[in-house]
Amino acid sequence: MGQEDVVSSEEMFVEQQNINFQTFFFEALQQKAIGNYDKAVFALEACNNIEKDNVAVLFELSKNYAMLIKYTEAEYYILKGLENEPLNLHMLRHLKEIKTKRNDYLGAIKVQNTINSLKPEEEADLVILYIKSGEIDNAIKLLKKLDDLNKLPEGLEALKESLLQDGSGPMLKISEPVIESSPMRQVDRLKEAYALNRDYNTLVTLLEEQWKTKQYLDLLKDSEEGLSLFPAQPSLYLMNARALNSLRKYKEAMQILEEGLDYIIDDNNLTAFFYEELSLSHKAMGNNKQATDFYNKALDLKDK
């Protein structure tokens, strides 16, 4: 009897720890979804205390620290994750972005070469890294190689012409994207532009800015209007569901996501975003098993 009591107590402890882990983990996902990255980190650290070196936790910690512009911590946690899964493509891409943000272009090139060994079709991503690191000759050689193989992305055509115009290539400075000083002003400009042309691409950009600036009511209204105009565009279903989840309308979000999934064709990344939102909806409604299943599905798709 005594031994049975001990076993029973141990099983109850393990079960409670699993419940605690799930609770903290999905709290972190919800906090990240609404931009509360500090709170997400706090919940993830609780997960890490329960289950050391869980890859999903390490990855989420890195992503949240990156959003907080704490790149030292972000790199530390993604490297810990890669110790367990060194060929995880999604984590490798994230590490490359962190190194680029830290101006460690040589480090980013090394990571990109590892990515290329797994996904040769992503070799073109080296071009900009070569230029930023001052390796213009390597950039030119790669551009020529990709051009000869008819694998040069359209976005690099102008760069190829510029680099090759005099045979040796000019010294270039690649400028970083201009960050709008006032995100709210950017939203206003996008609203004005969309009111004039009712263009799908402008609408998507507007919805993304509303999401970033937490204008959930406007996001809900404009995404609903967008669905009436472009009912076969899955991205609009996703943005509408994000607004609904943020406004705690979880059941409605699930319905919209399930409808939108039918319109996705061969887009693993977009499907993964749908599964992440479904995971959040199910977690908020207390469906822990479904929440975990959808989150795992999202991770599996992002690694492909």
Give a written overview of the molecule.
- The chain is mainly α and about 300 residues long.
- It folds into 3 domains: about 1-115, Alpha Horseshoe (Serine Threonine Protein Phosphatase 5, Tetratricopeptide repeat); about 120-175, no CATH class; about 185-300, Tetratricopeptide repeat domain (Serine Threonine Protein Phosphatase 5, Tetratricopeptide repeat), CATH 1.25.40.10.
- Helix content is about 75%, strand content about 0%.
- The chain contains 16 helices and no strands.
- Pfam families: TPR_8.
- This is Tetratricopeptide repeat protein.
What are the SSEs and their pairings?
Blueprint: H1 2-33, H2 37-50, H3 55-67, H4 71-84, H5 89-101, H6 105-118, H7 126-132, H8 136-148, H9 157-164, H10 183-197, H11 200-212, H12 216-229, H13 234-246, H14 250-261, H15 268-284, H16 288-302
Helix pairs in contact: 1-2, 2-3, 3-4, 4-5, 5-6, 6-7, 7-8, 10-11, 11-12, 11-13, 12-13, 13-14, 13-15, 14-15, 15-16
Explain briefly what this protein structure is.
Helix content is 75%, strand content 0%. The protein has 304 residues and is mainly alpha-helical. Helix 11 runs parallel beside helix 13 and helix 12 runs antiparallel to helix 13.
